[in-house]
Amino acid sequence: MANYTDPYQAVLDYVVPKLQYNAYHDKENTLILWLNQNCKKAVGSFGEYIRIPLQYGHTDDSTDIAKNPFATFSTTEVIDQDALKFKASGFVKPMTVSNWKTEVLVGNDKNRVYDYVLGKTKTMMYSATRILSDRLFGDGGAVATDTIGLRYHLDQSDTSYGGLTRSSANTYGLWPNEDTSTTIITWGALENAYMDSHAATDVIITTKDIYGFIWALRQAQERYEPGSGKAKVFEEVGAPYINFNGIPIVWDERCPANHIFGLSKGNPNKGEQYIYFLVHKTWNLGVEKVVDKTKDQEVTVFRSKWAGQLCFSRCDTQFAFTAITG
């Protein structure tokens, strides 16, 4: 057992490892859960830029050497940038533990001290997880040091992207499939978005309200159809899902209203990775003591830190409904 007269040691030994694990395995934060399982990479240092390999899309020019083996080949560059460039982002969530020494000396109740530290730490870590989830869903990205959320990655109005200007006319693979329809979602609309995303969608994430509506669209015998291997990450934590052509549809408590996101990780085993969830090795929702004034004020300050970035190499393989009203 940790020495209960030291709240930091109690937090470090018994609380932080469990809360770190829970932060990335919460069945109500399905975006973090899915990214952690499929796209997460621990990074020791980010440097000035995070560099993500850029897929150029395609070119249609070729040279027929069967007719003329001495023909001049086209050497025109498709693009003059070799990678997308993003900045790392991060945040700090502080916690203050006060009067713990008096509790021990006067009350001689070490369990009470531990419970006190435990409760405050849970609040801090829960708050930090909500902040991270909101950032991953958010529209940050206009400022270089923002966490780039799904609403920026998949918003056609955000044309400045990773050091490039993206548009529907170029072939970088960065133009997202955004649908601003306000009509009630149907299976047909999901089918069209799925087909337009040019790749096998791995997960569809939405709000709890829209999830309930989609649930109602399904026939009774279809609601409990077992999913494919793509649903395993949700089954392991008991998160509910609806099977759609082998793709799990899940809800996330922090998903913005009126939104549905369809995400494709690509096939990393074959060198095709479309989403990178980069997390610093030590700034990973851990806890550290930064100020200790127990000698005079009986106050100890801790903080939970997170640093990283959500990066896409392909946006045209994803889709988003952004204005569903029913």
Q: Which tags fit this structure?
A:
alpha+beta; 326 residues; phage-related protein like fold
Secondary structure elements and pairings:
Layout lengths: L6 H17 L6 H9 L1 E4 L6 E4 L29 E4 L2 E10 L1 H8 L2 H28 L12 H4 L6 E2 L2 E2 L11 E3 L7 H10 L6 E4 L1 H10 L14 H4 L6 E3 L2 E5 L8 E4 L2 E2 L4 E2 L1 E18 L6 E14 L6 E3 L5
Parallel strand pairs: 1-14, 7-16, 8-10
Antiparallel strand pairs: 2-3, 4-15, 5-6, 8-11, 9-10, 11-16, 12-13, 14-15
User: What name does CATH use for the topology?
Assistant: phage-related protein like fold
State the total count of DSSP E strands.
Answer: 16
| Secondary-structure element order, N to C | HHEEEEHHHEEEHEHHEEEEEEEE
Average pLDDT across residues?
81
CATH first level: which class? Answer: Alpha Beta
| CATH-level-2 architecture | Alpha-Beta Complex
The coarse overall form would be globular
What composes the largest sheet?
6 strands, mixed
Tally of contiguous helical segments: 8
Number of domains: 1
Structure description:
The protein has helices at 7-23, 30-38, 100-107, 110-137, 150-153, 187-196, 208-217, 232-235; strands at residues 40-43, 50-53, 83-86, 89-98, 160-161, 164-165, 177-179, 203-206, 242-244, 247-251, 260-263, 266-267, 272-273, 275-292, 299-312, 319-321. It has a single domain (7-57, 81-321), classed as Alpha-Beta Complex (phage-related protein like fold). The protein contains eight helices and 16 strands. With 326 residues, the chain is α+β, with helices and mostly antiparallel strands. The protein is globular, with a radius of gyration of 24 Å.
